[in-house]
Amino acid sequence: MTDLFQATESLSRSKKTGAAIGAGFLLVVAIAVYLVQWQLSPMLRGASAVVQCEISLGSGAREVGIKLEVCGVIHSGRFFEWYTRLSGQASHLQAGTYSFSRTQSLPEIADQLVAGGALSTDIAITIPEGMNVWEIDDLLAEQRLIVAGSFARTYADDEGMLFPDTYRFDKTLAEHAGEYANARVIGAVLRSAFDAKARGYAKSQIIIASVLEKEAKTVDDMALVAGIIAERQKRGMALQIDATVAYGWCLARWLPMSSNRNCDVTQAPIATEIKVDGPYNTYTRTGLPKGPIANPGLKALEAAAHPKASPYLYYLSTRDGSALIYARTLSEHLANRKKYLGF
Prior knowledge:
343 residues, mainly alpha, Dna Ligase, domain 1, 3 domains, two-stranded antiparallel sheet, two-stranded antiparallel ribbon
């Protein structure tokens, strides 16, 4: 009887021990599950905090995890390494500067790094319509992308065919701004853009469009001025456009210079220069100037290709440049000059 009691008591103790072990195991599993879920969870729930974090080229999963932990977007760099290795993502993490929200979970951050959703580090440059080659050169030099003067010297003969637009260039160009080759790289992009978007226009239309960029601001005015140019050409009248004279003055001064100093067309002494004959002087010669005087956009090119007929033969710009005033006859034009310009 004593043996039976002892056996029963032993079995009871064994069951209690087994139950305790089972309960302990379940507790360990529950804690492990909680910790894993916590590690996978966002740093800040329901909040919006954006953090920029730079992942260096060549970083492994461990280095990336440590960086993310330092940036404050994950709980543990070690856990990140473990997670990405198990998920097969460790060897696909991409370098770059990333923008993370602290409401993102670890899997979402890992997916973003694999997809390569880094912030763009390109340098954006906008070339406005109507800029000439010297003005483009100045703009690029200000952004420290080129040696001052190198673009103008390289692409002076492409005036009119350097398409105005917004371009993005790799930031490494700025690291090599002292190299003359940058001008060729950027110029080739502008020329390619022109060939892709505007190559169907005749040279005469490109020249007229370049004049329109300097003479008119609105699409309607561009079409009207294009019509005046066409009509004056038809009648054999000189175009008498100051902007072409200013460009010719700059070109004549700039070409012989060995320095990288660009010419500013706004400094041209028009009153005296209109008396100096040259291929861009539309006072002393009839017809179009020798070449484009700026780089036109599509609106000006379209206006040049589709001039608007009107009874006008003359126009002038108000002092503030806000409007063009048109005239049918020379006497009307002279009266407008006195009224709007004071002479």
